[in-house]
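Example S7 (structure tokens).
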């Protein structure tokens, strides 16, 4: 199997299981983001892939070769971790050339590669600049270039953009993705930022409590979350408890919701409906209804908060058709069945 394969990986620290039975295949040339809340085990997993930690049990293979116990320096990795570890006393060019220099490459080869990489990261002409005189984003790009000096088999990044301000981070996400697409390097990025994962990844791996909860392309993670944890973690969502009445009708908050069907074998469930999929209509039988409690006009979008039995539902609209809706008014919360998911409780 080409690419990276994790088989049944477990990592325990004393009695604590930080990673629990993880199986994952990262096909060659793809971009994977490991996403999850703080402490979910994503860094621990990346460290095992990098050879910085040994799994307690399980196997790691790269292009069919077992690398579980192979030392880091033999894995042909490019790594960018949170602390960039650029050499502050060296210039940009010397930093980028470093991996070649320690392999004994000649001056000419080093210069040629540095020029190529500076071109690639849009820092042409920066070779002699001291690293200390770079902006945060420029430093980040140098760290990325240095990790790519010797074309790696696997490119591993742990929260590589977290130190940057929001605007720069978003720009760098696009740059990093475009770079990876040009080079076709198998890349794994650890992040807790779902927007970052959605922007860059071919495949998002959502983790929680040391386990993988879902592996899917970003849009599928958003549209078809595997469970309520994933639904809640990715983007804004409304999660409503569902049950059936004696006539097998689906109820939420005791109200009949005709737009939802539940599998026969499910007595209870959770409905996931995204705010942008809700249309506010006049209240009527069979449509969930509630009272508007707050309206937030953000310019490009309007968020309407609707109270139902003490719970809040949020609807987002990009249109201006909702301007006639007022706080205190009763509204119907309509959505198409295709735009909602019923999850097991
Ligand atoms: P963050 O986003 O905060 O970095 P993470 O998802 O990367 O979180 P990990 O760093 O992988 O989380 O840690 C997973 C769990 O394992 C945490 O509960 C952490 O406290 C624990 N852990 C990590 N390294 C060790 C260690 N060396 N010894 C003991 N426990 C550890």
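Recovered sequence:
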């Amino acid at each position: 199997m080409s690419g990276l394969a994790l088989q049944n990986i477990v990592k325990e620290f004393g009695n604590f299981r930080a990673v629990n039975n993880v199986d994952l295949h990262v096909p060659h040339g793809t971009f994977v983001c490991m996403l999850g809340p703080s402490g979910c085990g994503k860094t621990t997993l990346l460290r095992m892939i990098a050879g910085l930690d040994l799994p307690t049990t399980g196997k790691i293979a790269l292009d069919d070769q077992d690398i579980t116990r192979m030392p880091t320096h033999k894995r042909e990795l490019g790594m960018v971790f949170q602390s960039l570890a650029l050499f502050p006393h060296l210039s940009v060019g010397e930093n980028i050339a470093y991996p070649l220099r320690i392999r004994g490459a000649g001056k000419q080869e080093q210069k040629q590669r540095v020029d190529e990489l500076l071109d690639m990261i849009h820092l042409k002409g920066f070779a002699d600049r001291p690293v200390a005189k770079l902006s945060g984003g420029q430093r980040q790009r140098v760290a990325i270039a240095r990790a790519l000096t010797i074309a790696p088999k696997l490119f591993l990044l742990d929260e590589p953009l977290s130190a940057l301000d929001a605007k720069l981070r978003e720009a760098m996400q696009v740059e990093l993705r475009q770079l990876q697409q040009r080079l076709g390097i198998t890349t794994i990025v650890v992040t807790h930022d779902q927007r970052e994962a959605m922007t860059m990844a071919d495949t998002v791996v959502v983790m929680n409590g040391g386990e993988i909860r879902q592996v899917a392309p970003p849009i599928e993670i958003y549209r078809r979350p595997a469970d309520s944890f994933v639904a809640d973690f990715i983007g804004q969502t409304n999660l409503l408890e569902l049950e059936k009445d004696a006539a097998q009708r689906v109820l939420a908050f005791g109200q009949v919701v005709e737009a939802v069907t539940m599998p026969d074998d499910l007595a209870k469930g959770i409905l996931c409906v995204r705010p942008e999929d809700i249309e506010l209509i006049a209240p009527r039988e069979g449509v969930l209804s509630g009272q508007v409690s707050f309206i937030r006009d953000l310019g490009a979008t309007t968020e309407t908060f609707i109270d139902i039995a003490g719970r809040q539902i949020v609807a987002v609209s990009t249109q201006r058709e909702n301007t006639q809706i007022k706080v205190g008014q009763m509204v119907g919360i309509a959505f198409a069945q295709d735009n909602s998911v019923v999850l097991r409780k």
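Notes on this example. The pocket of adenosine-5'-triphosphate is lined by residues 13, 16, 18, 36, 38-44, 192 (CB under 6 Å).
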